[in-house]
Amino acid sequence: MASNNFKVVIVGGSVAGLTLALMLEQNGIDFVVLEAYPEIAPQVGASISILPNGMRTLDQLGCHDSIMEKAEDPVDKVYFRSSTGQEISSIGGRKKTFVQQHGYPIVFLDRKMVLESLYDKIQDKSKILTSERVMAVENNPESAVVTTKTGKEFTGDIVIGADGIHSKVRQEMWRDAQKKSPSWINPAEQQDVPCTFVCIFGISEGVQGIEKGTLTSVYNEHFSYLVPSGPGDRTYWFLVRNLGKTVYGDDIPRFTKEEEVMFAREHFDDQITPTLKFSDLYNNKVSSTYTALPEYVYKRWYFNRIMTVGDSCHKFEPLTGQGGNSAIETAASLINHLVAALRENPNRPLSTAKITQAFEATQLQRQDRVWNMVRKAHSRQRVECLETPVLKFLAVHVLPRVPESMIQDQMVALYAPTVSLDMLPHPPREHAVPYYDELLRRPRSRGWVAVSVLSMAYLLLAFGAMRMLFTAGGTNGTFGFVRDTVRTGIFSEGGALLRHTYTGVSVIDRSLLGIVAVFLPAVTGASGLEQQLQLIYFLSAMLPIVALMTIEGFRPRNSWTMLALPSIWCALFQIGGIGFIGQLYFLFSIFTTRTIEYFLCQGMGFPLSTARATLPAVVIGFIVPTVLMFLPTEDLHARQGAIAMWQAAPVAVSLLTSFFSLGIGLIQRKFEVDASARTGRLRVVVNLQNTYKLTGAIAAAVHVAVMVCSIMTKNLSLASIFLPKGSSFAPSKTLGDGIFIFFQNDFLFVAFGSLLWGAVTMWDLHRLGLSNMSPFTAVCAIVVASVAVGPGAAMAAVWYWREDAMSGAMWKTSQQMMKVSRIS
């Protein structure tokens, strides 16, 4: 890159400023950093949290190991405490969870330590100048000039303000814009900056009662504490209080040391834990600061050759720790766009127009995300300060019971969209959740319009199924035939006797009478060979669907959703027909899977024992009872027993999965050596895909066999097998004819609904950047597969592909993927 003639003047040796300097150096771009303090990493009493979205870029810059060494103990347990210090709730295992999911833990350390790590990594330290307080910045047509208090001038192609919320660069940028383009920036915006909370933050040493690797939140009315443990014997703390009103601009207060001491003493008796008071923290402090907490994202971050980054353009409330991490993200975004502009314009200076384009692209990429995080941090602070009775109830009674899947969603939304450097490689660190820039394209939500359209489609299908199954069954006399058979105990066709005893439990036996009366004519083919073939085909197509629903029911990501009830759904299928109930299941699935986070979290935490249990559960719970029901026999008494036993088959699959999972889990713990997280996840995928392969192969084999039989058998056609003769509402001559129509309609509706479900799933893979197959191509492929191997096999193939696509994104590293055959 011909960048030696391009120079960047960075104002502020902050986290944003030094990160930007290191990024420029590693891209061969000249720079100078102007820091107002006499030292580059002063101790101002501030701690900082480095989160996965910030650490990922710092890892690219080679700072990961240094920061982790300085931090010592990543956050592993989070406590939420009441005003008495009593534990309301806690979440453990955070270190392992964050590393497995995102590749990095959360760490706390001195801000000074992070600055030292960044500074140490910069090769040419002569470009880092201290005691250079900026007094003026000028935008010129071909350069920008910074004048410092010492009278020195520094000229660069651009000037970047990384000098905090009270940014001198921003003030100068606004001044210059007022002269040259008065409509660009409204100077009154400075009075729009709001402040609701103020904070004393500090660092203490030698405090007893705060465990290493913990983060403690203490709820109080209108104030709260955040107390992370630090390295060595350090403890960090934040005492945040509500001002009682929101103030703006010049009304935002600044505090003296005397005011800090007065405020601190008012809270000396506050309990942090049952054995630790705030006075213990404050009296053991080595540094502290009392400051207001403005929260704002400025409308304009740049003008001509000047731009602001970090707190200079977006200021956070500190509770969520996103201030420094977002500064790193914005710096990375700026470098990406700047490097791209320089590559497009080699060997010649960048014009102001080209520089403005790079600045604009940076702000457009970042502003929505930072605004969203600023608002979330504010909302979270209001909750922890118990600002209203509703928020107090939420904090004490609701949040402790939030399911893990919702917490995962929040973390994915925070970390996965992070901006990192395009031109530097990522060190290979395993993580289950893909970052957006690892995907084939930036993911997007399905959107409420699409969700609404799909919901309406499934509601219409459910209405149609209800009409064609139940309204038609009542109108054409089918249900009347069933009642007569149950009442008389005799099948009108052939005079066979209806068996009355199956389990010896009268309630169960009575409920089975009607079901056996429905199935026996179809199993024996009372209306001809086509009826028997239709039922065999129907059940083979239903096999993969039951397997998929069982797997989705056990997927941790579906906990606390309607998908987590496969036994209930399968029981409802037997009562209300899968053609009707299936549409409702697909509807709930469409709603549950609407978000980006759902799919990116989808493969996380699936137990290997459960993945291994699904295949034997499907074989024993569904395939064996189905085969028994169709075994050739003249003993109708025994056949009716097999039919009655089959009714529990769909439900039995999920129950057997639970049972087998327990046993397999015990065997694993006793005999298997713990595998790496990566190997374990791949084993899960292999075992789930084995279930898809077997059920899909069976459905495909039956499909081909029925196709061949319809061609080779005289007076037999596909239409006679799958389509009702005439109107479904016309009177049926016999019970067998009515049941034939019922099952034909039941199959047609579930087949259409499941294929739509599969098409939406393929679209999901594309919109999330997990697949390059276009939605149109995916729909065509599903249609072709349905014709070639049947709808059941097509659905198994979709889920096989889905599992593979998700695993490919979730385990993306620079290392070669392990061979599946080695670990199956």
TrEMBL record:
The family database entries (InterPro entries) matched by this protein are listed as: FAD-bd (IPR002938), FAD/NAD-bd_sf (IPR036188), FAD_mOase_fung (IPR050562)
Start and end residues of each FAD-binding domain: 7-353
Pfam family of the protein (one): FAD_binding_3
SUPFAM superfamilies under this entry?
A: FAD/NAD(P)-binding domain
Residue intervals passing through the bilayer: 448-470, 535-551, 563-591, 611-631, 643-667, 694-713, 734-756, 776-801
Task: Name any cofactors this protein relies on.
Answer: FAD
Q: Which UniProt keywords apply?
A: FAD, Flavoprotein, Membrane, Oxidoreductase, Transmembrane, Transmembrane helix
* Tree of life domain: Eukaryota
One Gene Ontology term of the molecular function aspect: FAD binding
Q: In which pathway does it act?
A: Secondary metabolite biosynthesis
User: Which PANTHER family does the entry mention?
Assistant: FAD-BINDING DOMAIN-CONTAINING PROTEIN-RELATED, FAD-DEPENDENT MONOOXYGENASE ASQG-RELATED
The similarity comment for this entry is: Belongs to the paxM FAD-dependent monooxygenase family.
Protein name as catalogued: FAD-binding domain-containing protein
Q: Give the organism, scientific name.
A: Monosporascus ibericus
Taxonomic lineage of this organism?
Eukaryota, Fungi, Dikarya, Ascomycota, Pezizomycotina
